[in-house]
Amino acid sequence: MSPRAAPSLRRRLMVQLLVLSAVLAVALYVAVRLGAERASEATLDGILGAATTTIAEELRSVEGGAELDLSPGTFSMLAAMGEERIFHRIDIRGLPVTGYDDLPLPPTTPTALEPAFYDATYRDADLRLAAVARSLMIENRAAPVLVIVGQTREGQRAIARDLGNRAAALGLVVFLVAVPLSLFATGTLLRPIGRLAEAVGRRGGHDLRPVRHPAPAELMPLVEQLNAFIARLRQTLAQTETFIAEAAHHIRTPLATLRSEAELALRQAGDEPTRARLRGMIRATEESARSANQLLDHATVLFRADQRAQDRVELGAMVSALADRFRPTADLKEMEITLDLPAAPMETTGDAVLIESALRNLIDNALKYSPAESRILITLREDEGFARLDVNDRGRGLGGETQAALSKRFRRGGNVGGVVGSGLGLTIVSETAAAMGGRFALKDRKDGGTCATLWFPFSS
Amino acid sequence: MRYALVPLLVLIAALLGQPALAFEIEAEHRFGPEGATNELAVLSTTDISFFAPLAEAFLARQPNLALRYVQAGSQDLYRAIDGEGAAFDLVISSAMDLQMKLANDGYARALPADLVAELPVWARWRDRLVSIAQEPVVLLLADAALPDGMAPPRSRRDLIALLRDHPQLFAGRIGTYDPRISGAGYLFLTQDARMSDSIWRLAEVMGRLDARLYCCSGDMIAGLLSGDLLVGYNVLGSYAAANLPEGSGVQAIALEDFTVTLQRTALIPVNAPLPEAGAALLRFLLSDEGQLIQSRATGFAVMRPETFATQPWLRPIRLDPGLLSSLDSMTRRRFLAEWTAALDQP
After folding, report:
1. Rounded-to-integer distance, Cα B48 and Cα B52, Å
2. How far from B308 is each of B75, B82, B135, B287, B303, CA to CA, in Å?
3. What is the ipTM metric for this complex?
4. Which of A21, A55, A329, B283 is most deeply packed, by most CB within 10 A?
5. Averaged pLDDT score across all residues of chain B
């Protein structure tokens, strides 16, 4: 079962970046809209205040009351921006004397010549008003005068709205640009993770070296943990292999003693049932010894595969030497080992001990499972840039099993019959081939028997 | 008791059926077919005779529409809309300041956007008030006013000199508007005063020569034609062009120091019963055909910006709330007091 996937980092980053840019766009709109409104409001208040003060100052006292000469320029100026509506009112001693009698009064009476600004609704219009107070000598008495000028602010609002809309359009553009940018940014940001995963995934099954792939600082804890895990795994594996090797070694010696004792007993035994039992015992001992040997071999393979020795091995010479070593055994079964080697040397680079172990296992298997008086053909040639070694026999074939199945540890074919074996031989061969950067194939021959093939890369 | 109520009920019914117009109407005329389903009501300061060709051309393409045309003075027209809320579909006046005040005070309805968009900025205020014609305010001079071989005055300075030099000739034979009763007269005077101080010297000279004050352009023109007057100051150009035939012995002069140019403005009141019909009439007045009929009647190119380039002395009155300042009651009182003081020589 694969682990449950948490929400994708890419999607989370994307969503967060997009939400962020949307928030920024809205903030831009609000800031510009409010800013434009405040700025234009302040400017227009300045003009309105100045106009109101000017009108207040133009009030003169004359015989029998006050006199005023409103300048058209003042009103034109107030109305200029956006063609606003203008209202005014002048009170003397609290009584309206000119203008719009019902124009709303300021909430608090302004101080002398300092305009007070306020908002009010008048004649279905939202007005911004300024009020200025002063006093005037009328009939030898100081009379309080209040001058109020109001204007609509439709033009200002239209401008603020226009600016706001432009900011909104800009925000939208920012947002639209943010979409491909955040796609790009998340891609760039997440690429090291993908690269690291790829680098780890490319490693061979037995490659337990620490990960040295460059990773960003944020990924370093993960890499360190991974390396610590690998180190623990390697140690555990090493301990296991050492244990198996030790165990095999400790079993081998007493088994040898047991076997020689049993052979001695067989020679001295007289009655047939005892001899039969002793023979069975010897065979079982042989089987055990072989298993122990192969366990030892296998542990060696695993151990040395990790070491990655870089010897130059001349395959032809090694095959010849091995064939010579197996010839006495072959002679016992009246079998023949034929070599077909190239004239030129073929070199591969790797662990000589491992390669020899693999070849030995192949030849041993061929001898074990072939009938007497058959021939084993070993050929070495170049095949698509690799050194290819075939071991052909006339044995029982794969018996319907797959190569992968047979290459598993302690797995033996269904047709081994009474032949002694541990089920480790092909495991050793296939692991060696993988460790050397080569390949191993096993298939039935057309007219009976098995063809085991090993490919090794040439030395560079 | 029961019978005593009857006359009252009759009165109420009469008031409801035929809304009484409390403002003073100068003239009224109904154009269009008798059985028309809709009746467009127009309130205007323009003489019916000027408007008739426009009304007929407009109604020719509106089969089911009649037009009730009410002519009133500019002050009465203002009061009808501001005070009485009279129901009209289009209000046309040459008193720009009063029209401006109506629009500013919220009595004007927003006009269709397409109608407003076609107008230059100087010919409209927001989307409430539009100019349908422009016409200069001219000086009328009878040929008899000029001594033999003398060129007509080209500026106010020339006019003042002419009047000063011949007091016997001009005494009691100068006519101008009475700004206290005529809205247009007040507007022209305030605009004159805005342009130049020479108006005050002219007022003093006219006062010394016992100038006669009139309510309307038409009366002044009649005075000139009859020979009672030799000079008419501040007469609407359209009236002069229409009522002064060739060889009448009176010429209209656009003074070259400056000639105030009036815009005849129109608005649709907020309480208009048929605002769409009002807008249709307004659209017709602004159309090439409507403009052609108006210019044929008045002799002036209307609503043509190039007029100002070829005749630089024409000074259009700005259509903006600056006009409102002269309507302020204190300002008006002070201005009229000054005018009266200048005119009434001790």
Report:
1. 6
2. 29, 33, 11, 20, 10
3. 0.80
4. A55
5. 86
Q: How far apart are CA B53 and CA B40, in angstroms?
A: 16
Annotate B51-92 with DSSP letters as a single string: HHHHHHHHHTT-TTEEEEEEE--HHHHHHHHHTS----SEEE
Give the up-direction half-sphere exposure of residue A69: CA atoms within 13 A in the CB hemisphere. Answer: 10
**Pair B181, B115 in one domain:** no
> Residues of A with CB below 8 A from B322's CB?
72-73, 75-76, 79
Query: Has residue A20 got a pLDDT over 50?
Result: yes
Number of H helices, E strands in chain A: 9, 14
Beta bridge partners of A206: none
Task: Determine, for residues A83 and B320 on separate chains, whether the beta-carbon distance falls below 8 Å.
Answer: yes
B172: domain CATH number is: 3.40.190.10
**Which of residues A290, A307, A324 is at a domain's end?**
A307
Sequence length of chain A is 460
The C-alpha atoms of residue A106 and residue A120 are separated, in whole angstroms, by 9
What phi and psi values does residue A90 have, to the nearest 5 degrees?
-125, 125
Is the minimum CB–CB distance between B191 and chain A shorter than 8 Å? no
The predicted-structure confidence for B223-275, as pLDDT tens digits, reads as follows: 999 999 999 999 988 888 778 887 788 989 999 999 998 888 999 999 999 99
Q: How high is the pLDDT of residue B18? A: 44
**pTM > 0.90: yes or no:** no
Secondary structure of residue A154 in the 3-state scheme = helix
Taking residue A258's Cβ as centre, other Cβ atoms within 10 Å add up to: 16
Please write the tens of the pLDDT for every residue from A47-86.
999 999 999 988 888 887 888 888 888 888 887 765 788 9
Helices (H) and strands (E) in chain B, counts: 15, 12
Last residue of a domain, one of A307, A331, A355: A307
Residue B34 DSSP one-character state = T
Question: Is the torsion defined by CA of B264, B90, A78, B184 positive or negative?
Answer: positive
Residue type, A143: A
Total count of residues recorded for chain B: 346
How does DSSP classify residue A418?
T
- Token pair listed for A415: 């047709």
Considering only the beta carbons, identify the residue of B126, B323, B330 that sits closest to A72: B323
Domain containing A288 equals: 206-307
In a domain, A389, yes or no: yes
B334 within 8 A of A67, measured Cβ to Cβ: yes
Helix (H) / strand (E) element for A434: namely helix A425-435
Q: Is pLDDT at A32 greater than 70 in this prediction?
A: yes
CB-based contacts of A135-144 (< 8 A; 24+ apart in sequence)? A136/A59, A136/A61, A136/A66, A136/A92, A137/A61, A138/A61, A138/A65, A138/A66, A138/A92, A139/A64, A143/A66, A143/A92, A143/A93, A144/A92, A144/A93, A144/A94
Please give the residue range of the domain that contains residue B147. Answer: 135-261+326-343
| Cross-chain Cβ contact A67/B334 below 8 Å | yes
Q: Which residue of B has its CA nearest to A155?
A: B126
Outline where DSSP puts E strands in A85-124.
86-92, 95-99, 116-122
Q: What's the pLDDT tens digit per position in B121-135?
A: 888 898 899 999 888
* Statement: residue B16 has pLDDT above 50: no
Residues of A with CB under 8 A from a CB of B: 66-76, 78-80, 83-88, 90, 97-99, 123-125
Tokens read off for A152: 């609509």
B64 pLDDT band (50/70/90 cuts)? Answer: confident
* pLDDT tens per residue, range B195-237: 888 999 999 999 999 999 998 888 899 999 999 999 999 998 8
Min distance B325 CA to chain A CA atoms (Å): 5
CATH label of the domain that carries residue A435? 3.30.565.10
| pLDDT for residue B17 | 42
State which amino acid sits at residue B327. L
